[in-house]
Amino acid sequence: MRLDKSKEVFDNTKRYIPGGVNSPVRAFKNLSITPPVISKGKGCRIFDIDGNEYIDFVLSWGAMILGHCDHDVVNRIKEVVEDQIAFGAPTEIEYKMAKLVCETAQIDMVRFVNSGTEATMTAVRLAKGYTGKKKIVKFAGCYHGHHDIFLKEAGSAVAELRLKGIDEDIVQNTIVVEYNNLDSVEKAFKENKDEIAAVIIEPVAGNMGVVPAKKEFLQALREICNLHGSLLIFDEVITGFRLSLKGARALYNVEPDLITFGKIIGGGLPCGAVGGKKEIMQCLAPQGNVFQAGTMSGNPIVMSAGYVTIKKLKENPHFYNNLEMLSGKLEKELTQVFSNSNLTFCINRVGSMLTIFFGVEKVENFEMAKMSDLDLFRSFAEYMIKNHIYVPSSQFEAFFLSVAHSENDVEKFVEVAEEFCSSKRK
Fold it and tell me: Which cofactor does it need (predicted)?
């Protein structure tokens, strides 16, 4: 794999963009290779400016569930952009998109924003405005965006950085508890009686690697929030429309008060949303007094791309069955490869998202994730990328599959993983 042009462009970019990237995890900071500078994507493959081709298991961090440059999405974008780019005014596609999202995800109302971070910020402000309380509970290892209130013990790239610039006056109202540990949640409510506006959680965490919540744990969270007059917020920025049309909620049969969306909801374009119960959503301005605004929110191009994506998922329920089959095949065959190599490991998978942890046999929370063999994972990620399998460079991110992947793509992943194990035995 040659990365001459990528290195030149990436080095030049550092003169104008901090670290050469617009989001930290893209920098491959912990790897010894230059990040490939990507020039093209089609289906489950991406291509860099040096001419290297990769099978993509990152998929814009889960957003590209239909694969890159899906024909229907691209054609709709082309049609819309002839007449509409941005107005900062109502458009018909906003109505169509809102109706589709509400009916498909089975929620009452939705407000579109421009990113997952905006969605979670809005959800928490809405919870505080609705309840009149100031504090929120979040879980160590869960990443809800880059706002100060969420960066206490966050996952994703945050887990590998020492942070500065955080406003301690804001952070003091964020209570961090342990994922899948009910005692820590009950303790937080006991110590902060009548002060907690909401509990926010990734029902399937994707930012400490993939770590699913236990069903009984989420059910208990619902009961605790009901008991104390607090809202339960599911952050489904990653899992929304990925695990099912109803997201992770369908797996757990637990109904939150608010849900945040991102990634897939924009069809690959910048988008986020917060949705939920009508009585809460109506508190948003201009109907209520909880303020949120955004010039580009509900942008017609973004709404059109998202509409085609969700409509296509809704009209093709077999997509989810195929994703489950392929992802299960990947998990099963990787398990065999690593077992044959006498490696200690754990593969966490929920639907079409998974993470490989080396050096541990079980990961149920952030502390357990941090005990995994980070150096071995870095070696694995670097080897896979060098051999044209594009995977996350960080242990604390998820692998994803798309409807564009085939059994051959999965088999190629397993083949390269087996070569990696062989190289370690030599």
Answer: pyridoxal 5'-phosphate
Phi then psi dihedrals of residue 177, to 5 deg: -125, 175
Alpha carbon 358 to its chain centroid, in Å, reads: 22
Rounded alpha-carbon distances, angstroms, from residue 356 to 22, 153, 269, 325, 344: 26, 21, 28, 18, 11
Contact between 161 and 24 under an 8 Å Cβ cutoff? The reply is yes
Amino acid (1-letter code) at residue 300: P
Mark whether 312 is an active-site residue. no
pLDDT in tens, 190-217: 999 999 999 999 999 999 999 999 999 9
Q: Which of 48, 50, 235, 257 is catalytic?
A: 235
Set 130, 143, 252, 320: catalytic member: 143
The angle subtended at Cα 212 by Cα 206 and Cα 216, nearest 5°, is 145
281, 101 contact by CB (below 8 A): no
> pLDDT value at position 280?
98
Mean pLDDT lowest for which of 42-51, 151-160, 414-423? 151-160
Buried b (16+ CB within 10 A) or exposed e, 247-284: bbbebbebebbbbbbbbbbbbbbebbbbbbbeebbeeb
351: which DSSP letter?
Answer: T
Catalytic residue among 128, 133, 138, 263: 263
pLDDT of residue 274: 98
At residue 310, the pLDDT reads 98
**Helices assigned H by DSSP within 67-158:** 71-81, 92-105, 116-131
State the Cα angle at 156 between 155 and 161, rounded to 5°. Answer: 85
**Any catalytic annotation for residue 375?**
no
Q: Is the pLDDT of residue 148 over 80?
A: no
Whether 235 is a known active-site residue: answer: yes
The SS3 of residue 43 is strand
Cα–Cα dist 249/230, whole Å: 19
Residue 327 DSSP class: H
- The residues, ordered by sequence, that sit 6+ positions from 172 with a Cβ below 8 Å of its Cβ are none
Q: What is the CA 41 to chain-centroid distance, rounded?
A: 20
| Average pLDDT over the chain, rounded to an integer | 95
Q: pTM for the full model?
A: 0.95
Q: And the tokens for 8?
A: 């030149």
